[in-house]
What does this fold into?
Amino acid sequence: MRISFVTRLLTEIEDSKQEDFHVEKALQACGYPKWTFNKVRRQIESKRDKKTTKQRDSLQQPMVVIPYVEDVSESVARIMRKHNVPVAIKP
It folds into this structure.
């Protein structure tokens, strides 16, 4: 699997691969070692995996919205958060 360093600027996969190759060769010419590219690829992949996991978790558990009632809403929200239920209080 190829991780693109320029994921936000290029939309075509082939363009992205060419740009990655160009950037890598230019940095190697400046003396950057091979391990730095591998490290960056792992960091990008890890960040993307965390993001997709977070999105998946947020989709599995929708937020509960409760109306604001003085002295009641805060207590209910505290109990729900204790059980890992995301809560929003709406006036």
Observations:
- Strands lie at 64-67, 87-90.
- The longest strand covers residues 64-67.
- The chain has a mean pLDDT of 81.
- Residues 34-60 form the longest helix (27 residues).
